Predict the 3D structure of the following.
Amino acid sequence: MNKDQIEFNKTVNQKKKEASVKGCLRGGDEQAGCSGKIVSAHSIQRGKILASIAEGNEGKIYYLGLTPAEDMMSMVPEFKPEGIKKFSTFSGFCGGHDKAIFQPIEDAAFTATAKQKDIYAYRAAAKELHTNLESKRLCEIQLGDKLGEDDFPPHFQATLPMILQGHLEVPEFIKEVMIHGATNHQMRSRHKQCEHNIAELSLICNALTGAIEHDRSSEFEHIYHCLNEAYPVACCTSFIPYFDHDGARIISEQDQQLIALSHATSCLDIKNVLLNIFPEAGETHIIFTFSKGNQNFKRAIERLLKLDDDSLRIGLSNIILNYSENSAYGPKYIEENFSLEQITTIKELFSSTVFNPSAFQKGNINLFIKAPSATPQ
Ligand SMILES: [Zn+2]
């Protein structure tokens, strides 16, 4: 890494630290029923899942992340090693609630009961909610008093592209003011998006905790699927599925624009879905969770599960790579099973949607490679 890259990482980490949110999501504003301090909760279980994927004395996994390029002009995707003590943690629960809520999946074998599926889904929603609370705070810190001020009015929006393309000349200081305004404008949109996500994810969390604590069904349903081999691949994520596994639109462009403008006020209208994948007891478990009102997504997953085994695994891999930023992989498994060319494709699929959810890319990667069967004698 060169000096600029190191400096960039330092600044990013410092900003993230300033924006960190420590509080118990279950306790709410009053921290009701909370006990113990706020813990580093794992969104992907450390003891059973990450430990089984990790390698080496220090227990490292691979995850896909972005690093600034040498010339600092772009972000480059790569597999990064990370210790399992730290990976996938978030400061969103007090010790008491963390233990009470997640015990039925931490200490008992996974048998795909309704309650266990609800708890897995809840953890994915809580992790995403916490991420959005921190992103929102980061926007507020960076915007300062520009949060409520429009410093990128329509005439700036109309003329800046022409100025940047050299078709229109203005004094340098005006150009700088406009570029700064454009950055703030983008951050204000991001801030709004976080507010929408927070509203919807809070609805999901409330519905699921209601179901978990009172043993009843909620407005959310699960589709569970199981591969009969344990793969060192795990993810715990929440996303809006604009596209299905094949790159076909589930949500129209028009609806996508509407989603960006407002948030759902009822669980049945929620488009956010949750996905948990994890190896346990010789199998790989896959849980999709979505609103009962989201029939388009349900049909898309049903189509995926009807495919032949290889196509199903490729479709599932497309979903993970395009939609999940919280996935762990076994380092050796990746290095030994995928060619350099395939690893490049994996990174491309991962980075395509990070900045633009409309840029879903369909690939031919299968993240769940079957162990070679013994050659018949
Ligand atoms: Zn608590």
In short: The chain has a mean pLDDT of 93. The longest helix spans residues 172-214. The CA atoms of residues 157 and 299 lie 40 Å apart.
